[in-house]
Predict the 3D structure of the following.
Amino acid sequence: MNCEQLVGCFGMERSGFLYRGRHYAGDRQAQPKSVGHLTDFSCGETEKGPPPPLQTHSLREFEQHLNDLKKENFSLKLRIYFLEERIQQKYEDSSHDVHKRNIELKVEVESLKQELTEKQEILDKALSTSESLTNQNEEELQRRCEARQQEILETKVQLLQEEVQLARGRAEKMASLAEEESQRCLVLERERMMMRKMEEDEEECEGGSLGARLQQEALAEKERVIEELTEERRLLSHRVGELEVRVHDLSSSLQKKDRDAELLRGEMSQEKSCVQQEMQRNEQWSNEKGDVGNSH
């Protein structure tokens, strides 16, 4: 219902009686009392018996006051209507703005979610690439370290094997020299025995003075040769003893080097096994990480 319909219901125009109800009673009270008396006098001429002046005047005032109240009530209703329209308009505008803002916020949230998803994918790819490069670098570094360690161990084993071969050659050479010296001692011993036997045989033979002198010279020469052979035999025996000690030392050193080489071979085998296990673990870890990344 609009303003004209409200005014039509009460039978008056919008511009006529708005906000007059309260002041109209005041204007009525400001009128002179003679008006009431004139009204009473005119009424008395037309009617048979004039009613009491106070009663007629009170009824008119009551009717006028009632009309004023109706006008004031209409004015209040009209104000309430305008206020309700204004409130409704503000509510509709506010609701429309809130709905529009809500839609804009939802669109912005979805856009931010999409951007966050894209950034997260880029970050995951970067992390995966970084981890892959790190793993490759670690594997390459580990492979180089293992190759270097393997090369060092192989070099040590080769050096030990060469030292063992040299020690064996020296031991064999010393053993051969000892055998030669021993054979030479035996030869000298046989010669000494033969010389002594010859001396004994010559002593048994009888001869002239020349023969005795020659025999003495030969005997002295034989004694000298025997002494030289004895000294040489003693020196050779001492030399053989030294050679035997060196052979024993070389044999001990050879055995120690054999043990060291065996230990190095064991360490190489163990290190190789550990490296293979570590490589298998790294490969398994890389495969598992790749599977987890694919699942995400």
